[in-house]
Amino acid sequence: MSRGLVNLCLVLHNHQPIGNFDNVFAQAYEDSYLPFLEVFEPYTSLKISLHTSGCLMQWLDEHHPEYLDRLADLASQGRVEIVGGAFYEPILTMIPSRDRVGQITSFTRWLERRLATKVHGMWMPERIWESSLTSDVAAAGIQYTVLDDFHFRCAGLTDDQLHGYYVTEDQGALLRVFPGSEKLRYLIPFRDPLETIAYCHELGQRYPGCLVTFGDDGEKFGTWPETKKHVYENGWLRAFFDALAQNSDWLKTVTMAEAVEQLPPAGKIYLPDASYREMTEWALPVERQIVQQNLIHDLEHDSRWDELKNFIRGGYWRNFKVKYPESNEMYARMMVVSRMLEEATAAGCPGDILRQARQWLYQGQCNCSYWHGAFGGVYLPHLRNAVYQNLIAAENALLVWSHGESPWVEATVSDYNFDGDMEVQLANDQLAIWIAPDHGGEIYELDVRKNGHNLLATMQRRREAYHQKILQANSEQANQGAASIHDRVVLKRDDLDSFLQTDVRTRKSLVDHFWGADETHERVRNGTAVELGDFSQGQYQATVRRNPDRIQVMLTRNGLVAGHPVQVTKGVTLNAGSDTLEIAYLLSGLPANSRWRFGVEFNFAGMPDGQDDRYYCNGAGNRFGQLGAALDLDGEAELQLHDEWLGLHVALRCQESQGFWTFPIQAVSKSESGFELVHQSVVVQPHWLIEADSAGQWSTFIHLELGCRKETNPFSGRWETLAAF
Predict the structure, then answer these.
(1) Would you please indicate which residues are annotated as catalytic (active-site) residues?
(2) Which helix (H) or strand (E) holds 399?
(3) In 3-state terms, what secondary structure has residue 50?
(4) What is the pTM of this model?
(5) Which domains does the chain possess?
């Protein structure tokens, strides 16, 4: 270890989330991971610390084991330090303590076995930090991690205190933490390599013998837009390594392991709850996010800005579960499965079932679909679907053990989504239905067990702070070269501004609407229809009726329609072994002269548009178009949705329905490649022009059949990977 001018830790983090497409893994390997290694290998004097998430490691082991063999060889030479972490890259503050330790220790075992190296440090997913993590991370055998210098600034440290590493503590357990430089994150690889050298030289002159740490995504080197050409074809990375090698007399690359072994800590620190600066901005409510952005814009040229910015903080990561209720739904579902696994362990469930269920649970904790920013994927249906598929698979495995193979049905009541109100789970061996009586009596999750699909993994269209950029963007802004991903404005289609529609509530099912008799499909679709009733988001009273093989959840609300008192009663019935929900409605207290249209909204997610094998048809098999079609069907009593690729079909059979309205839900969101339109779900709304009988009542029924022709075996999977669990 040099005690010369500057010691530089280069910490790279490579990751692809669970559920990402195989071709995305392959492209990232070709564009980033492999070329980086090929450029790095000849520079024998340089060293890096490398974290590759477990999701990606397993893919590489299956598709490119030779790449891992090369990493193992570099690790044996001391040139690459293999950095561990939580196996499937969860936000550690989001998961129970037992799962934190389990994810970290299982990945350490996997890495040490596959790469024949010791693991002492870890990557902190998204650098989300709370002090209580210290004891769990230490209990998992980890000695150090890297966060951002933003965390340290929030604790009150100044620039001249950020050139080393610190010790932190919780419940007597110690952990060493490195402050990753935000300055270097924006220099590397977007600016000339000599700017990084000059910055390090300046630090060396001011703080001789200092340690400076760069910690950021490896995808910056080839996968981010325009970076493949910039980093490799234009030679940025080779020039950077040349500059490091040429200045090695005073600028030494070191691993985190070497820094901890040979340099003393700069001191002790307790860090506040934080993440990297941009994440704290994204976690804010949209209105406050805009206020913060405007304040920064107004103040960043003030002569006092360098001091002021240290006292400006954004939001708190956990509030993504408030900002996006869909994130909370996944989180709450994950917590249910984690508790089931803990209870099954205590009850003596066989080890092979526990190991497989635990792997699926851990995969369902992968962080990317639980939040949103330039990288987070809550708007990406395939990532949300992957979370549910893994969680449902884990639950299936445990239920087969606890219930056996015979048909069954049960209902349970609890505050499942942690909102202070009670929800009802109605479940059997085919389906799982989650009902929120206090939120319109809606169904907010609908799982088909055979293929692990949640038909209500939906996404509400809502305002985002970056929508203003779409309104302001022009074609000249769409080509900015290799700019930082946070600064790019790239529109994937020119008409995105016409899709900036927002929803007043989450897009769920069994949502009750009262419309005027002349209300139209177009107005319902574009959100300008006038809601006459207060039922769609109102509070229902719930009761459960049980028979041995049949359970009904009865939901009742006394509300108003156009100022008139009306009672809505709806019953949801499920039989053991059945894949069909029986839904009955009774409307009471209807005025004799009322002319209202009653609609029941259903949403179905994960059955995308754009393909001819995903289509609508009626009971006779006559097709009405792809699942993205906006349909105004009169006189149809049955509507079916088919997804041949998933092997899934949905059939809505109604009593004397006067028709169906359908339309797609498409959200405008931001990803690392630009602004895009993403299909989220389809709305199917059967509707009736209701006429009260002499008692002021009207009734109907709907049968919702959820058939699946492709089964995901709850015990399928890569059993050879399970030893780590």
Answers:
(1) 126, 217
(2) helix 381-403
(3) strand
(4) 0.94
(5) 6-273 (3.20.110.20), 467-708 (2.70.98.10)
